Amino acid sequence: MLKGRKRSEKRAGLYGIWGTSKGFSEEAKKKAIEKLFSKISELSREKLTPETLQKLGLYAFAIELIRRNEFDRVNEIKKL
């Protein structure tokens, strides 16, 4: 899915879902969670690889952060 894209493009796509660290409406959070679940659904149909598992875990973690309103933790991920 993301193969062939530059790392910065991959990150831009993922972080575009999350946006900035503060000021999210409930509707924005709901849409972000829906998009992440959609990505999980797509990835779960692909061949199982370490990269796929890593992405699945990251998306699941992101959903949990959004639900808990811990957007400052997203910045920690961005630095990795």
What can you tell me about this protein's structure?
It is a single chain. This protein has 80 residues and is an all-alpha fold. The protein has one domain. The chain contains four helices and no strands. α2 packs antiparallel against α3.
Primary descriptors:
80 residues; mainly alpha
What's the quick description here?
This protein has 80 residues and is mainly α. It has four helices and no strands. Helix content is 71%, strand content 0%.
Main sheet, how many strands, which sense, barrel? Answer: none
User: Poorly predicted ranges (pLDDT <50, ≥5 residues)?
Assistant: none
The share of residues in extended strands comes to under 5%
Could you say which overall geometry the principal axes of the C-alpha atoms support? Answer: flat
Cα Rg: 13 Å
Domain count: the total is 1
Instruction: Indicate the percent of residues in helices.
Output: over 70%
Give the H and E element order: HHHH
Number of strands: 0
**SSE-based structural type:** mainly alpha
- Give the rounded overall mean pLDDT: 80
Distance between the termini: 21 Å
**How many alpha or pi helices?**
4
